Amino acid sequence: MKILGFDLGDGESAITLLDSDSTIEPRVLMLQGRTSILSSMGVRDGHVVVGDDANVLSGATDVRVRFKSRYLVDPDASGDIRIFAQGVMSMLLHEEPALMAQVTRTVIGCPAGWGEGRREQYARLMESAGFPNVHVVPEPRAAFLYARHARGLRIDPALMQQSAMVIDIGSSTTDFAYIVDGHQQDLSLFGDTNLGGGVLDELILARAIRLSPDRKALERVMMFSPAWKSFCELEARRLKEQYFTAEEKWQSQTLTKQIIVCYDETLMLELSLDGDAIHEIIHTPCAALGGRSFVACLNDALTAAKKMSSNCVPQVVIITGGASRMGFFREACRDAFPDSLPVLCPEPECSIARGLSYAGFVDESLKIFRQEISSIARGDRLQSAVSACVHELYQPIASALFEVARDSALEAVKLWRSGGVNTIKELDALLEKQIAEAFLSEAACERIRPDLVRWTQALLVRLENELEALCIRCGVPPEKMALGSTQVSTGISSVNLSIAGALGMDMLSGLLGVILGVVGASICGGSGIALIGTGPAGIIIGAATGVLLALLGRGEMKKLFSSMQIPVPLRLLVTDSAVLAGINRQRGEIERSIIIALCDPRNGFSARLCQSISDTLGAQLERMAQSAEMSINA
Length: 634
Description:
Blueprint (H helix, E strand, L loop, with lengths): L1 E7 L3 E8 L7 E2 L8 E2 L1 E5 L2 E4 L10 E5 L10 H20 L1 H5 L1 E8 L5 H13 L5 E5 H11 L7 H6 E7 L4 E7 L2 E2 L5 E3 L4 H15 L3 H10 L1 H20 L1 H4 L4 E8 L3 E8 L1 H8 L11 H15 L7 E5 L6 H10 L4 E4 L3 H31 L1 H10 L4 H24 L6 H17 L1 H33 L10 H8 L6 H5 L1 H21 L4 E4 L5 E4 L4 H5 L3 H9 L4 H4 L4 H10 L1 H13 L5 H24 L1 H4 L1
Parallel strand pairs: 1-8, 8-9, 10-16, 16-17
Antiparallel strand pairs: 1-2, 2-3, 2-4, 5-6, 5-7, 10-11, 11-12, 11-13, 14-15, 18-19
């Protein structure tokens, strides 16, 4: 898998390539012999030229610069971006045609303030320029991924996993991304879409023109010749970069550059910078910033970022972007986050491009991870694993159903014994109602939970090897998806087994018939006291154990006894312990009857139970995977 990271900036652009088959360290692709080129395009001898070739001194006309910052407001900017991107692609195809044929994904950066719809349009625009399979990623996210994965920065991963603030200043925007626990917050991507280093380029040029003896003539050239204006702004940019690369040196010395402007006449323009000039420029009100100064807008943006992250102060502040070398900018970031570790990217002009390549790798890994987890959680593999061992739950289910039936029977007998139920016939109806409700309640599920946890754990361990291999392939630490006792006990095993849903009403009725027959016999005859009805004259207490149980086999006597209202004092002879002993003696028979019913394929219990467990277990496995995704996405 080969991924291009294309940082098409408003001032400069860079491209990196990540070959995930051999390394996860993106390498910068050289363009015109440099690691980055000017984001400019023009026409020379009827052909489109880009980068350093697009300037008036080399004979280029119709030179265009800073088209990315115009993308949201100028309809012509889309065409300029497409032409520039086509020029870059032509250079790549010329330099490394075989390599470009293997690229499977292109990741393009965009300012944080761009919405989803704008990103989609931008992706299609870049695809029309020849870049394959384009995905658009906010540049602050790319900067975060670069800081997290880059080998040269050596940032403690534990700090990165807590909270981080990315501050990315480019030529046209200053963007922020706030990350907590490895995840971008819902409102994490924000920034000032007008506050970029390009504003300073304009101010440096405007200051030089204002101080020039040829001011009026130069202003006319800038008004009527976009090509010369673009060229002069680029020269101002180069002077700015030279100044901030050795800022300490030029604080007290004046850095100058002479430009010969040839339009209607030959004019001399001197660009100059020193410490006082920079102080003046960054505090000068600017029309592009709504009449406010660069420093004022920067402080407002940093204040907003600080307020947003106040609940979880960033442990790390990552400062990047081509304009991040400016000393006053770095100082303002440190002042805004004094308790955070500042991280300065060593090659800010390439860090976003590298981060975009990482983003492509991360998103591809995330896609594979989600697909594989979904295949396990929702596909045949989990259902097959459940089906292979679901029979191991039949005995625990039978025991649980027996126990809730026994408890329901005891409650019903207590009510009958106190006179709350008149006849044995009514007691039978109450028993059927209460046992059915108990089967449909959480009580049965709670009784089986310990066995279900152990069963689920054993099932998941069988999937562990498969999940471990997936984690290694996708860059997830295997322990994030470990299905051992620790992970299982913390939530993955809390499968809510719906016994009622698995039983179905037809099967429930059949089980009730079996259970009520045994329980009813235990209540009426298993207590050691036979209550024998002798006709209308009264009721005689018999002493022979089991006599009533035998007599109940005779239809007429059973019918008569069931409808008689036995005096409450006689009912007291049927004690809880006697009923409990009688039911427990039948436990084996009841549980065997339940298991036989569960196993019968005609009842459909096994299929329903497997589906219920697979659905709930699969959903929890996916939630567990979502937590593990942090290791990929962050």
